[in-house]
Design a protein that fits this description.
The protein is mainly alpha-helical. Helix content is 57%, strand content 7%. It has six helices and two strands; from the N terminus they run ααββαααα. Helix 4 packs parallel to helix 5. The protein binds fe (ii) ion. Fe (ii) ion (FE2) binds next to loops.
Length: 122
Amino acid sequence: MTDVTKLCMMEYDALEKYYTRHGVPFDWDTVVAGALLHDIGKLTEFTMKDGSVTHGKDFELMRHPLSGALIASRAGLPNTIVHLIATHSFEGDRSYHTAESAFVRTIDIFVFHASVAGLKKR
Ligand SMILES: [Fe+2]
């Protein structure tokens, strides 16, 4: 289980009461499935070259939010999950968000800044 999934599961209850108070649906299954699957397209961004893992030639054209959304859609997953995957990175900057997609996206950005971006500054 990824850090994003763990944090989403840990923080769900804290946020759920606010959404419930305002009558906004906030679905546990969508949060957990979305957190588990949001990076499913990552494998399509990479390839092996000369014995090393490197970005594939089309990784910028088909970043993992888009390729992941296609994978999820082709697998018959609900549009709420497809949407969450498609909008979890900067691809979703100006998109509509469900409560679940906004939540997973926020946790994902936090983890990125606390780990990947943080490591680059050392
Ligand atoms: Fe991602």
